[in-house]
Amino acid sequence: MNKYSVHIHGWLLLLPAAALLALFTHFPAVATLYHSFFSNPRKGREAAWVGLENYRVMIDDPVFWQSFANNLWFALGTIPLSIALALLMAVWVNGRIAGKAFLRIAFFTPTVLPMIAVANIWLFFYTPQYGLLEQLTSLAGLPSHNWLGSRDTALACLVVVTIWKEAGFFMIFYLAALQGMSPNLAEAAAIEGAGRWYFFRRVTFPLLMPTTLFVLVNAVINSFRLVDHIVVMTRGGPDNVTSLLLYYIYDVGFKFWDLAYASALTMVLLALLGLLAIGQFVFLDKRTHYQ
Amino acid sequence: MSAISVQQVSKHWAAARAVEDISFEAEAGAFVVLLGPSGCGKSTTLRLIAGLESVTSGRVLIGGVDVTALPPSKRRISMVFQSYALFPHLSVAENILFGLKVRKVAAAEQRLRLAKTAETLGLAQLLERKPSQLSGGQQQRVALGRAIIAETQVCLMDEPLSNLDAQLRHDMRREIRALQQALGVTMIYVTHDQTEAMSMADRVILLRAGRVEQDAAPADLYARPASVFAARFIGTPPMNIIALADGAQGAVIKGTQEGVVYRGPGGGMLLGVRPEDIQLVESGVAAKLEAIEYLGADSILVCKAGTETLIVRAQGKVARAPGTAVQLAWPREAMHIFEAASGARRDDVLVAAGVAA
Fold first, then answer.
1. Confidence of residue B1 (pLDDT cuts 50, 70, 90)
2. A191, B77: Cβ pair inside 8 Å?
């Protein structure tokens, strides 16, 4: 085989994946960027070049800013807790305990369930009057509360659902990493008299850093692209307190049919996620020990 | 210095009996090797002494104190693992200092002991490196460093040399022995390599299927193996184990009529003779030379007498052709008699035959 046919061979092997990637990822991203510089096409009115007009509108859009702030709170509420919980569960089911297999499955179940079904189950928990939460609080003699209907608790309710769902998923990664660690390390530390917490702090946690970094990037991305739970449970309400960025984009694009503005919003979200991912890798990579 | 006493220790996992009623003593400052094939329970025994596993029954005493119920950290021991168990994200210095930091030893003393340890093991240039930047031999030294900086009086080693190449293993054998003697620690050393056991140990405890097969000094283990298993485990090539039969005038090699081995019944008995004890002579036990393997300093001769195969180790090059007849002989004191059924040593047979006193 000569030099050229080797290259052609290689490109041909890459072609299916590259074509799919280009068709469904790269092209839509570039097209979205392109559309974000045009006005929204309507019946009898072609899309016209408007430059940065859509972005200017965004700066003056209170719902965008509210969604943005909601999303920050949502990320802050879900990411640290779900990661900490995942780590805790992984360390727990990695140890010598009875019913280990059952616990692992139990922790992972939320990830396997369809999101819409999950949202419906939680919707029942939060329902006023006869929901599970209401039944429990009424047993305790507490006054009735509309969890998803109240401005104060709606976002927190979504945070709880997300933590419940994400922690099990992240646990699998931590568990895999823990299983890869030699039990001799713990034994060597035990002989030196290191307690469990000391060993975790000085050995387990640092050795899990690559996993933590991976999980963190995923958690950040997930927290900015939640949409299904909101559609089922709150539809962004009440009063936009549960409207997150992607849900707002969905609303603008497919309810108000303002595709141009939705494109501009999408670009902002993409840029934000890109920046976050790069920042995490650059910042944390230096502190991470890879095997 | 601390002596170690293992008293009737057993370890069972569900149906598996890893260690069954093992007892032995290690005098203070002694180098004791636990030797045996894989699965004989030697590593488990070491882990029971370390406290990494709990005993099913029996007691472990270190320095006269019953440590059976104590956690590993309270047993005042150090341990080197087969995998070295170095912390991959910590530097060599941090790895060695790990235990001192846990025990909150003063920083000044940490520095002092680190410097001393690093110098002893020749690690001074490598202290800032990570384990992944070290060769296998250097990693081994770091593991040793972590054990000796603790300055405990008992050191446990679980096949520490098995991941090294042959040359390095040879050097480390001497080094570990020298280190043990210089520090005066009591060492329990697990290996499946009889060369390591013979060259390093003050005492060898040979294990088989979770039980002590023989507990003796290397020289005694070689000179007076207690069973066929012990006889075959020590020596390269291992001892010849030859089936005997009843002949007209006494015991003969199975399948032959002439050449009486000793006067007495031979049926159901095994004769053990080390290859290096057999000589080629003018008249002795008749055998046929089947193959010669020349090794330089000596040659290994494969001979057949009756149904039995005898390995002979002769000095230098042997000028005989395979297929020719040879005559073999061995001194009386080189004979070991075992019972075929139980494998046990039967000196009484030789005494009765008037061969041994």
1. low
2. yes
